[in-house]
Protein 1
Amino acid sequence: MLATRLKLAKAVDGISDDAPLFAPTGLGLDSIDALELVLGLEKEFGVVVEDRAVAIRVLTSIRTIADFIQSQGKG
Amino acid sequence: MAPGKRVVALKNVTGGDPHLQGHFPGNPLMPGVLLVEAMAQTAGLLLSEGSSALLAQIRDARFRRPVVPGDQVRIEAERLGSLGGLHRFAVKASVDDAPVAEAEIVLAETS
């Protein structure tokens, strides 16, 4: 989902579960990508990211996103 | 209009519009970039009154047929979601029920 929604150039296999999504040393995503991810999570997994504070916590890495989906009972 | 969620705007295209004089000489055609601007401004109507916003992203824009003088463009914007001052919209433009353009647009609220 990450790769298709954000049109990432990088191969999915090359992204580790703990890579920081927004740090320049990680994937270097920006706030527009964050909104895209939030909408994607809602559409594809049925989980709602309420606001910016939750988004900052959840959208840290692939692992934190997966944990969030599971904590919502949608894993 | 559904408050904050969906809005419809109309734009009448006339031969008097100055940008049509040279675009193109003898063959007036509403520039696609102005169509997108009209779509972005329509989406902006869904933000709270008095707020201003900048265009932050245009995604998957398609132009399906030319818009010419005499056309009335109907623009329909729907808010898909928001996060921290960023708002994403699906916007469609049509003339006489035929689609002429569509795009997903992100606006960034500046105040």
Note: The two ends of chain A are 14 Å apart (CA to CA).
Protein 2
Amino acid sequence: MTGVTDIPRIEMRGVKKAFGSKRVLEGVDLTVAKGESLVIIGGSGTGKSVSIKTIIGLIEPDEGDILIDGKSILGARGSSRDALLSRFGMLFQGGALFDSMPVWRNISFRLLQGRNRLSADDARDLAIEKLRRCGLGPETADLFPAELSGGMQKRVGLARAIAAEPEIMFFDEPTAGLDPIMATVINQLIREVVSEMGATAITITHDMRSVVEIADQVAMIHQGCVQWHGPVSDVENSGEPHMDQFIHGREDGPIEAVR
Amino acid sequence: MWALVRCIWKKRRLPILLAFQSFLAAIGAAVLGLCATTGSLAIFTGASVMHVFRPPWYPAEIGRQLLRIGYFSLPVVGLTAFFTGAALALQIYTGGARFNAEAVVPSIVAIGMVRELGPVLGGLMVAGRVSASIAAELGTMRVTEQIDALTTLSTNPYKYLVAPRLMAATLALPVLAFVGDIIGIMGGYVVGTARLGFNPGAYINNTWNFLTFEDISSGLVKAAVFGFIIALMGCYQGYHSGRGAQGVGRATTNAVVSASILILASNYILNEMFFAS
């Protein structure tokens, strides 16, 4: 951990969210210190993705508050929201690459918008540099997303997430659907870029290897609440039955396994 | 008879009341659903129109959409207009022959194409082609989280995706309708001169002399409204697409159906506004 201060970089206070009659978040309290890498684990449909989408502002919570550097970001509109979003970078589960544009435009998309936008040549050079950082050659720059394998799409998604060097990064299931070797490569890339940039990161995953390789802190969400939150070194000895059952993949325990 | 009804009522009162309650609940749910959709569409329309007039604009995206919606729809609109004009000339000729009014073919073809068939049929053809394409594209973007990705990259999806399509369709449809009008009149001319024995010069003179500025302008205004409707319904259905292939498929169907119905309904309203007096 680096640069930890008293004021957390990200804080969720009693965040609740329901979709119709389905209550997804039932009062999530979570803090992430500056420069820390938090990994959120939990079963499918327990509210992990909804949690990070409420932080980014893609989903508005019904109750509670979300603070960045101690300031509430709920209700941010216009330029203040733009300023906030410019501090975020996100790798989506399926990559979410724009299939109508080549890889280099995907990566430098944000840098080609706004008043201080880069020229196309500079943006392309920057995209190639980010591709190289993520282990892909310059020949990838002119391909379209549909021409890439799953692992390459993840790397391009990662390159896009880090292109503007954001302070806060979100990774949604970064290793889902990848073979174990590619999963390790992606985990290491995430760890490296987060450490290099000194960014604060939140990662969602089911993959316990990702937890070990990426996390400083681990939080487990179950039924819309944080069941356990602690350093990665304590995961094996958390003493929390939900956590124990999840990390060991046991069928018996407080988490109901639906067959 | 009355005694039988009373007997049934006494014995089966509860199931009958429950069935009636279910019937009312189904009607209520449908009405609430309609109100919710209307409200949601109104909010979407308001937000979209607001973003059309507020910077930043994306000229490259607007140009791309003009090409897709306008230029690439030309063959469909042109062919539709040509055959419609040709068929109209034949119909008017055979119909007019019943009361010795064959000479009105050029003027009726021109007025019919410019005022009504050019914009309406062109609009319906473009609705089938463009509205479906927009809904499928935005629906897929929604399902694959590309719309969320746009937001995280500090880009408003309304400005980047919806506003350029609305602008392009509203601008392109009058041009398409105008080209369709000319091709439709040409269709009538070809049938009139080659098949029905009209003198080419007289046919063109009759067409030109009977057309007024109001005929042409009303058709173009209608086309602009239809263009707005086509893009709006495609964007709305795609933006609110359900999950998976089925959700995108439903959004595509809904876009074409709703755009077509709204085109026909708004055509009647616009006709009332332009020609009622």
Note: Chain B has a mean pLDDT of 93.
